[in-house]
C-alpha cells in the first residue's frame, strides 16, 4: 500500500546506510546527566519493594510525571528499554533515520511494527520513550484541544507546565536552505500570516520549537528526570512490566478491585514485584500501544475477548484497545540539483481548514555516484540528498483497534488504523495534497528543480510524483490511499470517557490511571509531544494537590 516515503528505502540501500553510518564518528559530547545515580538495572531490584506511585513506562509523559511526584512522594519508574545517553545516533539529529533503520535489533531503542494497513511504524523502547527517537518538532496544543479533550485543565497550570518543560529541553531551530525555501513557498502559496518563531499552534506559516539544540544534540523526556528529588525516586531500566496486580483494597472502598502493584521481569527473566502503599497508585504511561496492551494482559478489557485468550477477567471494560487512531501522512520527495542541509521538521504551514504541511531534508549515504545528482563526500561515504514535503491531516476521524498478538508483553500488539475509512479524512488529504502542489509551483522552489534544454525546469522525484491532473478528485484520492504513510502520531486505545474518566482514572478500578497518548481522541495540534510532556507535569501537580488536601 504505502510506497512514498523517504524514510523507507530498499533493503540493500538500508544495509549500505547502516554499514556506512555506524562507522561515522560523532563530534557531539555524549555526557550523561547527573541524575543517573538513581537509575538502576532491573536485575539489581529487590524481589519486592513499596512505593507511593509506580509509573509504568519512562516515556514522554512518564518522566515529567515521575520527576514532579518525587517532590513529595516515593516514586518508582519501570522502563522496559535502556538509557539513551551515550548512543551517538539516538542522541543526534543526524542519527534520526539510522535509529529507525537499525531498529529491530534486539532491544533497539526503536521498536518497529507494521499495522495491518501495511504501513511500517515505530515506537520508543528506551528511557524518554518516543521523545527519545522522534523528529523533535515541538508545538503546544491548539486551543480547541483543551475544550475537547475531556480533561478539566487549569490553563494557568497548563502554561506553567509547558514553561517548565521548555526551559529544560526546547530550542529555537536555525533554518537552513530547504526549510527556508519551504517557509517562503508556503507563504507564496497563500498559507499566511507569517508568525515567525512560535510555540503556539496558530494558523499561517511558522517556525516551531525543537528538542534538538543548536549543536544537533537531542533532548528528551529523560532529561526532565534531572528535576526529580533524587532521594525520593528510583528509575529501573530493562524492566518489562507484565501486568498490574489487582485486589480488593480498603484504600479504595468504592471499587471492587484496585491496583496494588505490578509484576515485572528483568533481562535474565527473573520476576519482581513492586507494590503500592497506603493510598498509592499505579500510573500507566506505556503509550498508545503499551497501555491498552497492559490493561488487557491484566484482565481489564472486553470480557469475551479476554476469555478467548484465557485471561481471567478482572473487570469488563468494552473499549480497551478500541478507538486507535493514526494521522495519515502523504507527500513527495525530490532529489534537488543543489546541496541540501540536513533538517527534520522545523517549518509548518497550518490552514484554517486543517491542512498541515511540513518538510524535512536528509543526506542519505549512497554507494554509487551513478545517480545524476549533487554529491558531497565526507570521508568515503557518498551522499544522496532527499528533500521531502508532506501533509498530514488533523484528527483523524478514521479509527481502528488493537489486539494482542501474544500474552508475552514484549511482542507488539496487532494494530489496525483504517486510514481514510472516514471519507472526511480522504477529502482533507486531497486538499492537503493540492496545497503541496501549490507550494511546488512557487518561485521559492525554483532552485530545487533541474534545468533542461529550452529553459524547462523539472523536479526529480524519489517515489511517486503527484498526479498530473490535480483537479481530478478520483486520481487525488487514489494517490492518498496508495502513498499513505505515518507521521507516528498514533494515539488512543484508552479513551477519556470510554476507558478512563476525566481524571484519567481507569473506570471501575481503584488506584489505577492512564497518563499518556492512549487517552487522546485527537492528536493535539497534530504534534503530540509538547502536550504529552506538559500532561506529565500537569498531572503530577494535580496528584500532589489531590493528596495533600
Ligand atoms: C519516529 C517518531 C517521530 C516522531 N516525531 C515527532 C515530532 O517531531 N514531534 C512530535 O510532537 N511528536 C513526534 N512523534 C510522536 C511523539 O513522540 C509521541 O506521540 C509521544 O512521544 C508519545 O508519548 P507517550 O508518553 O504516549 O508514549 P512513549 O513516549 O512512547 O512512552 C511509552 C514508554 O513506555 C515504555 N513501555 C511500554 N510498555 C512497557 C512495559 N510493558 N513495561 C515497561 N515499560 C513499557 C516504552 O518503552 C516507552 O518508553 C514521533 C514519534 C515517533 C515514533
Ligand atoms: C542488566 O543486568 C543483566 C544481568 O546482570 C546483564 O546481563 C545486563 O547486561 C545488564 N544490562 C545493563 C544495560 O547493564
Ligand atoms: C497560556 O499561553 C498562551 C500562549 O501559549 C496564551 O495565549 C494564553 O493566554 C495563556 N493562558 C493563560 C491562562 O495564561
Ligand atoms: C477542502 O477544500 C474545499 C475547497 O477549498 C473546501 O470547501 C472543503 O471544506 C475542504 N474540506 C475539508 C474537509 O477541509
UniProtKB/TrEMBL annotation:
<feature type="binding site">
    <location>
        <begin position="528"/>
        <end position="529"/>
    </location>
    <ligand>
        <name>FAD</name>
    </ligand>
</feature>
<dbReference type="InterPro" id="IPR051871">
    <property type="entry name" value="GMC_Oxidoreductase-Related"/>
</dbReference>
<dbReference type="InterPro" id="IPR000172">
    <property type="entry name" value="GMC_OxRdtase_N"/>
</dbReference>
<dbReference type="Pfam" id="PF05199">
    <property type="entry name" value="GMC_oxred_C"/>
</dbReference>
<feature type="binding site">
    <location>
        <position position="126"/>
    </location>
    <ligand>
        <name>FAD</name>
    </ligand>
</feature>
<dbReference type="Pfam" id="PF00732">
    <property type="entry name" value="GMC_oxred_N"/>
</dbReference>
<feature type="binding site">
    <location>
        <position position="517"/>
    </location>
    <ligand>
        <name>FAD</name>
    </ligand>
</feature>
<keyword id="KW-0285">Flavoprotein</keyword>
<dbReference type="GO" id="GO:0050660">
    <property type="term" value="F:flavin adenine dinucleotide binding"/>
</dbReference>
<feature type="binding site">
    <location>
        <position position="241"/>
    </location>
    <ligand>
        <name>FAD</name>
    </ligand>
</feature>
<feature type="domain" description="Glucose-methanol-choline oxidoreductase N-terminal">
    <location>
        <begin position="287"/>
        <end position="301"/>
    </location>
</feature>
<feature type="binding site">
    <location>
        <begin position="79"/>
        <end position="80"/>
    </location>
    <ligand>
        <name>FAD</name>
    </ligand>
</feature>
<keyword id="KW-0274">FAD</keyword>
<feature type="disulfide bond">
    <location>
        <begin position="429"/>
        <end position="480"/>
    </location>
</feature>
<feature type="binding site">
    <location>
        <begin position="488"/>
        <end position="489"/>
    </location>
    <ligand>
        <name>FAD</name>
    </ligand>
</feature>
<dbReference type="InterPro" id="IPR036188">
    <property type="entry name" value="FAD/NAD-bd_sf"/>
</dbReference>
<dbReference type="GO" id="GO:0016614">
    <property type="term" value="F:oxidoreductase activity, acting on CH-OH group of donors"/>
</dbReference>
<keyword id="KW-1015">Disulfide bond</keyword>
<dbReference type="InterPro" id="IPR007867">
    <property type="entry name" value="GMC_OxRtase_C"/>
</dbReference>
<protein>
    <submittedName>
        <fullName>(R)-mandelonitrile lyase-like</fullName>
    </submittedName>
</protein>
<keyword id="KW-0732">Signal</keyword>
<dbReference type="InterPro" id="IPR012132">
    <property type="entry name" value="GMC_OxRdtase"/>
</dbReference>
<comment type="similarity">
    <text>Belongs to the GMC oxidoreductase family.</text>
</comment>
<feature type="signal peptide">
    <location>
        <begin position="1"/>
        <end position="29"/>
    </location>
</feature>
